[in-house]
Amino acid sequence: MDRLFAQGTVNAAQSGKGPPLFLFHSLLSDRASFDAIVPELAKSFRVIVPELPGFGRSKAVTGGLAVVADRMAEAVRDAAQGEDAIVLGNGYGGFVALQMAIRHPDIAGKFVLAGLMQKLGITDDSAQRGANAAMFSTYEDFSPAGRERLDAFLDEVYSGFKQHVAAGRHLSAEQVEAVAKGRVWSGEEAKEKGLVDELGGYDVGLRLAQEAAKIPADKPFTLTVFPREKSTIERVYDRIFNSERDRDAASPTAAQGVMAGLVKLLADVETLAGDPGVLRMPSFGEIR
């Protein structure tokens, strides 16, 4: 059944009974992408699948992701009717949900698995020391003290991020704050606001690097790629001895490791040296 929320601006389908569960669809799909799972979810939740602003019967908004998040926060409050809401987003819907949580922290809780574990017959116990030692536990919600500590931590991270932006882009704190708050800008908008220097691809980046290194435009130069590409001998050695694996991990004997690598290498060689004109699939190794 369809209902309108947020003063008639957001249309959503609603089914089932229980705690409100919101499903936000992606940018390249619509709410129908959840049709296969809604009937099962509706057995335990009141499932609300809105059409994001500008989709279906939901009215579009003027502005970026922050404005979309504000509209959806209003819809969530309206539809939840004071109950604790669960919000899941797919793709673009995930970005909207995250932005909504940042801008409206009263809506966002945390992912608590206690109820699910009980349904699966799994129990959990722990011992901790300190008021906030278990604040990130997935088996209980934030305490008031834990929520306060989390808010302080997020404020500290956000403030540090803005300081780095201000220093890197030679902007004042006020200028950064004016373009911050999680908003998404196009390349042209970012350039207008001083967040990037130039727009372009690899060629533009190469030209700017050449200018920064004070290399004349007509002077030839050599590009060095990192990490350095390995030689054939080095690749064969790595294939045999599997040098990139964790050397401290428990493993078979050195001889067994060498033999396993040789078997894989010989299988590849056999494939390449097989009958001409015969299409062969390369060896995939052991299938488990």
Describe, in plain words, how this protein is organized in 3D.
With 288 residues, the chain is of the alpha/beta class. Helices cover 41% and strands 8% of the residues. It has a 5-stranded mixed β-sheet with strand order 1-2-4-3-5. Helix 2 (65-80) crosses helix 3, helix 5 crosses helix 6 and helix 9 crosses helix 10. It starts with a strand and ends in a 16-residue tail after the last helix. Residues 246-250 have low confidence and may be disordered.
Outline:
This protein has 288 residues and is an alpha/beta fold. It has 10 helices and 5 strands; from the N terminus they run βββαβαβαααααααα.
SSE topology:
Elements: E1 2-5, E2 10-15, E3 20-24, H1 38-41, E4 46-50, H2 65-80, E5 86-89, H3 92-103, H4 114-119, H5 144-169, H6 173-179, H7 187-192, H8 202-212, H9 232-241, H10 254-272
Parallel strand pairs: 3-4, 3-5
Antiparallel strand pairs: 1-2, 2-4
Helix pairs in contact: 2-3, 5-6, 9-10
Strand content: 5-15%
Identify the strand order in the major beta sheet. Answer: 1-2-4-3-5
CATH class of the domain at 2-109: Alpha Beta
Order of helices and strands: EEEHEHEHHHHHHHH
Determine the CATH topology of the domain at 2-109: Rossmann fold
Q: Could you tell me the radius of gyration in angstroms?
A: 27 Å
Number of strands: 5
Mean pLDDT: 79
Reported CATH architecture of the domain at 2-109: 3-Layer(aba) Sandwich
Q: Which term fits the overall shape?
A: extended
Q: If helices are DSSP runs of H or I spanning 4 or more residues, what is the number of helices?
A: 10
What about the largest sheet? Answer: 5 strands, mixed
Helix content: 40-55%
> What is the CATH H-level superfamily of the domain at 2-109?
Alpha/Beta hydrolase fold, catalytic domain
Low-confidence stretches: 246-250
Terminal-residue CA separation: 46 Å
